[in-house]
Amino acid sequence: MKTKWKLLSALLMLLLLAGCTLQGNESPGDESLISGEKIPSENTESVQGSDPAGSVDLDLPPRDGMVRSILTNEWIDEEVAKVRPIAVTIPNESRAQPHYNLSEASVIYEARVEGSMTRLMAIFEDWQELEKIGNIRSIRPYFAYWAFEWDPIIVHWGAPYFTYTDSVLNAETTENVDGTYEESSFYRTTDREKPHNAFTSGAKILASIQKNHYSLTNRGLTPEKHFTFAPADAPNDLSQYGDDAVSATYVDMTAAYPLTRCYFTYNEEDGLYYRSQYLSGGVDGPHVDGATGKQLSFSNLLVQHVKQEEIGNGYLAMQCHDTTRDGWFFTRGKGIHVTWSKTGDYEPTQFFDDDGNQIEMNTGKTMILIIRDTDSFSYR
To answer: Which residues have CB under 8 Å from 269's CB, separation 6+?
Structure first.
């Protein structure tokens, strides 16, 4: 009898031990599914802490109501993104300097005009609060075609006669603020001589837009996407191109722009190219914004070769629509050969690597340097 009770006690003990063991091995995940509560695993904190950007997720907006800019890929207010940019024609000879608020532009184009001078066209995204923009000069037809890609309000003071007669500025879809007809939208300063002393402001441009019943918001004439950008937390260093990517910590455009002689020096600490150029008195130096005190700097440099010819009185024509020309892309201290394509007035100019893939640019400002297909430049 004692033996029987011993056996029963042992069996009961085994059952109790087995029950404890099963209960102790129950998965927390299973329990959370039953209760509807998520119980984090021991590794959750280490996984969240592995963000390469630290505690900041660059793919998330810093605050509600922000979106990625189609010009720079930076976070901007959604209301700013809805507003059309402005494209401002800016002279670049030494008497026209310093420029004001040029460092606030998201994209800047540079191309020759008559007499080997160059002129700039600055695309401003967040422009309404700017108090002094310029100075401002006349536009050329090829600048208008590049401007169309962003569907901006084009801001300029005058243009060659043929720019009006060839329907570039008189086209139904062109909306511009021209000092020739709307001098009240500009003002002249006394610190320099005409024609280098014409400026405007965000408030004056807005007043002109309202007076002319222009659309302040995007009209849907251009694609929603222009450039292709690399992820902000994984910049494109061109390493995927191997030996085809050249070292380019210094890009010199002097041979292509003999009067302005601009060049760019790469700063490895912030990943930007800093612009210098001819200032005055035979001196080259940093291209500094007179309003902000900042030297112009860019995440991306694009050199775009175009077909160019003279059309009389020193004026130039450039073939903005093409699929056969080449160029170069510089970023993060390196460069690659590219080709470009533009197939319509409001279609973007797109740049492709030698394998036919659209290049991935880096978040930030871009400088587009337009040169003749017979011109040269250097890098090292």
So the answer is: none
Those residues whose C-beta lies under 8 Å from the C-beta of residue 125, and which sit 6 or more positions away, are 69, 71, 72, 76, 80, 81, 85, 106
Each as own residue / partner, the long-range contacts of residues 58-67 (CB below 8 Å, 24 or more positions apart, any chain) are: 58/231, 58/232, 58/233, 59/231, 59/232, 59/233
Res. 56 pLDDT band, cuts 50 70 90: low
Averaged pLDDT score across all residues of the chain: 87
Percent of the chain exceeding pLDDT 90 equals 77
Q: Which CATH superfamily is domain 66-379 in?
A: YerB-like (3.50.90.10)
Lowest mean pLDDT of 40-44, 115-119, 141-145, 354-358, name the range.
40-44
Instruction: Choose among 165, 148, 166, 157: nearest CA to 87.
Output: 148
Number of Cβ within a 10 Å radius of residue 360: 18
Burial label, 143 (beta-carbon count in 10 A; 0-12, 13-18, 19+)? buried
Q: 337 burial class (0-12, 13-18, 19+ CB within 10 angstroms)?
A: middle
Give the total residue count for the chain.
380
Residue bearing the bigger pLDDT, 310 or 162: 310
pLDDT interval class at 44 (50, 70, 90): very low
CA-CA distance, 159 to 286, in Å (whole number)?
29
Q: Strand 176-178 relative to strand 153-156: parallel, antiparallel, unpaired?
A: parallel
| Helix intervals (H) in 94-231 | 141-148, 161-165, 202-211
β partners of residue 100: 134
Order of all β-strands in the sheet with 187-188? 133-134, 198-200, 187-188
Sorted by sequence, the CB contacts under 8 Å of residue 143 that are 6+ apart come out as 87, 89, 109, 111, 119, 121
Query: CA 270, CA 338: separation in Å to the nearest integer?
Result: 24
Structure tokens at 1: 């009898």
Tokens 């050199």 map to which residue?
A: 303
CB 320 within 8 A of CB 306: yes
Residue 337 near residue 44 (C-beta atoms within 8 A): no
Helix (H, G, I), strand (E, B) or coil at 199: strand
Listed by start position, the domains of the chain span: 66-379
Residue 365, pLDDT above cutoff 90: yes
